[in-house]
Each structure stands twice: as C-alpha cells, then as structure tokens.
Amino acid sequence: QSALTQPRSVSGSPGQSVTISCTGTSSDVGGYNYVSWYQQHPGKAPKLMIYDVSARPSGVPDRFSGSKSGNTASLTISGLQAEDEADYYCCSYAGNYILVFGGGTKLTVL
Amino acid sequence: QVQLVQSGAEVKKPGASVKVSCMASGYTFTSYAVHWVRQAPGQRLEWMGWINTGNGDTKCSQKFQGRVTITRDTSASTAYMELTSLRSEDTAVYYCGRKTYGAYWYIDLWGRGTLVTVSS
Predict the structure, then answer these.
(1) CA of A9, closest CA in chain B: separation in Å?
(2) Whole-angstrom distance, CA of residue B115 vs CA of residue B95
(3) Pair A8, A65: CB distance under 8 Å
(4) Rounded Cα gap, residues B53 and A47, in angstroms
(5) What do you get for the CA distance between the two ends of chain A, in Å?
(6) B43-70, pLDDT tens digit by residue?
(7) Three-class SS of residue A84?
(8) B residues 48-77 near A, CB within 8 Å?
(9) B15-25 pLDDT, tens digit each
C-alpha cells in the first residue's frame, strides 16, 4: 500500500486560510468516506482533527474543515493562528481492514 | 483519566527483538481496538497493524508481515507489539492508538510513543 500524497509544506500568514491536499486512489481515498486528519507538534503524539472526511471531534475549532473530491481529500484551516504551525497527516481506510497515511505536510505560519 | 500508557524507551542491537506495551486506562479496554503506528526520525507516520482487543484477531501491514506480532492481555488492559529481526531502519517512535469498533476508521486517542533505537 503506497503512502497518500501530500505537499511537503504549505505556509500562510495569521488570519489567512490554507488548504492541504491528500491524493490517493480509488482503492483508498476515493473508495471510502473514511479520511481522517491528524495534527502533530514536534515531539508530540498526533492529535485527531477531522474524521470521516469532514467531521470534527469535540474540542477541535471550527476553523478546521475537511472535504473530498474524487481521489483527493483536503484539509482547510481558516483564520490561521500561530499555534496551528505543525505537521499534518491525512489517513484513509484502504479496504481489508487496512489504514494508510500520507507523507505529511509541514504548515508554517509566517 | 482516559489514556494509553506506553512502555519506556528501548535500545536494541540489530537482529534482536523488541516488545512495546500499551496499557489502557479510564475506559473499557475490550470496547476499542488498538492500532500501532510508527514514525522514524523526521519521517512520516506509518501504519503497522491493529488488534481486536475482544477476540484477539489482528491485521498487519504487508510491509511488516512475518516480523510483527500484536497481542493483548485483557486482564492487564494492555496491548503489545513485538517486532523481530530489528535493523537500523526500525529506529522510530512507536505509537499505539485507540479505534472504535465498526465503521469508524480513525484513531481518537494516542499514546505518547515509545522510542526504539536499533544500534550496534
């Protein structure tokens, strides 16, 4: 199972919006509405930010939103804040009880 | 407090095995699956496999088949991940995570990670 494709880095200024893409295939992202997104600060464990493409867990700000079109899922962060600077990983169910992660995207808040 | 508590850091020689534990507290252990994910230094998250803590069924990534064994001890509310034939490329932080059973394919609770260093 190949890793999902994410841009290595994105950046934005405080208050702006950024979108991180996650491209897979019809066997994973495109085949199921089970895409999740995780935020990871340096030296910390990942934190669930979005699940089932666009659902937000309790406690996650509504500045974070998710969507999907075909084989590509996206995470949008609006109203960027300094604390949003982190690595972001997408993850998708790939059938047969298997998960696959993306390569990760480093978000820099300028 | 709902949490997953992982065992401490390990240093192993190439060819050896390592067994990492993940103890659940604050919730019913057998009501959730446990997944294992690793992250080599500066690298991406990599899914390794998971265990149905109720019946012990497991599923592992093809990449690790033959080298990884995931088990659990329900009396101790603990899941284990054993990786054999260690090589330098296995140096990584190993995370366990909790997943709700059924069509819920995300990890909502993570352990803090266990650093495994493979070095001669």
Answers:
(1) 13
(2) 9
(3) no
(4) 22
(5) 35
(6) 999 999 999 999 999 999 999 988 999 9
(7) helix
(8) 50, 59, 61-62
(9) 999 999 999 99
